[in-house]
Amino acid sequence: MSALATLRAQVRRRLLITYRVDPDVAASLVPAPLRPQLVNGSAVAGVCMIGLSAVRPGWLRPRFGFRTENVAHRVAVEWDDEGGTRTGVYIVERHSSSLLPVLGGGRLFPGVQRRGRFDLDETKDRFRVRMTAPGIRVAVDVGVGGPWHSELFSSVEDASEFHRQGSVGWSPCAGGGGVEALELTSKEWAAETGVVHSVESSFFDSLPQGSAELDSALVMRDLPFFWDTPRIDLTRGHAVV
């Protein structure tokens, strides 16, 4: 059980790098009863690289928050609910530049996190972000703007809405033995087309050859985000009232 029910932060930059993944390979990455969410016959997975400022409990003023860089390797998932099928993401692993999320993740709030080293080279419309940690590395070079290209989503608006709908993020519990949820919302949700100049992810590169292919990228900037701890019982497939 997490001690903090809500978190707030200002998103300085969020890069959503999306891959098309073989459904069977994606299924091997997520625990039951979660299952990969398919779009046009492919599972959807990716890397979220997010820079946050003013991270704090929901009741605390922004000036008392802290800054952090985070990266998450994720798979879009769905599960059955009494009202039908719900969607979200399963976060295979998280890394953070800050010691506070590493110490508090899975204890004070959902989501076990490991420490990573981040190197940033950013301008207004170009983002070069690299993260290295024991056993994993990821590096992206993404620009803003340009034509939209994707085999999963017909437009940047469709891609943005897909990610907005997948607001519940599931993470392994500390010590194993289940998953716990954190739900992300923003009243000012907005995404732009990202142009991928280069991307390297040891996580996706280690999957069977040809099972993961880069699809598209979104860029989100200067938005307030809010995280809440939903009470969802996966063993019964519905929200706890």
CATH topology label: Acetoacetate decarboxylase-like
Beginning-to-end CA distance, first to last residue: 16 Å
Report the CATH C-level class. Mainly Beta
Beta-strand proportion: over 45%
CATH architecture assignment name: Beta Barrel
The tally of domains stands at: 1
| Record field, number of beta strands | 16
Strand arrangement within the widest β-sheet reads: 1-4-5-6-11-12-14
Q: Strand-and-helix sequence, N→C?
A: EHEEEEEHEEEEHEEEHEEE
Q: How confident overall, as mean pLDDT?
A: 89
The CATH homologous superfamily is named Acetoacetate decarboxylase-like
Q: What is the percent of helical residues?
A: 10-25%
Given helix and strand content, the structural type is mainly beta
Largest sheet, in brief, is: 7 strands, mixed, barrel
Uncertain ranges: 237-241
The tally of helices reads: 4
The dominant shape is: globular
Radius of gyration: 17 Å
Protein name: DUF2071 domain-containing protein
InterPro entries: ADC_dom_sf, DUF2071
Structure, explained:
The protein is mainly beta. It has a single domain (6-239), classed as Acetoacetate decarboxylase-like, CATH 2.40.400.10. The protein has helices at 23-27, 99-104, 156-165, 202-205, and strands spanning 6-21, 35-36, 38-39, 42-57, 66-81, 84-96, 114-115, 117-122, 126-133, 136-144, 168-172, 179-185, 192-201, 212-228, 232-233, 238-239. The strands form two sheets. A seven-stranded mixed β-barrel has the order 1-4-5-6-11-12-14. A two-stranded antiparallel sheet has the order 15-16. The protein is globular, with a radius of gyration of 17 Å. Pfam families: DUF2071. InterPro entries: ADC_dom_sf, DUF2071. This is DUF2071 domain-containing protein. It comes from Pseudolysinimonas yzui.
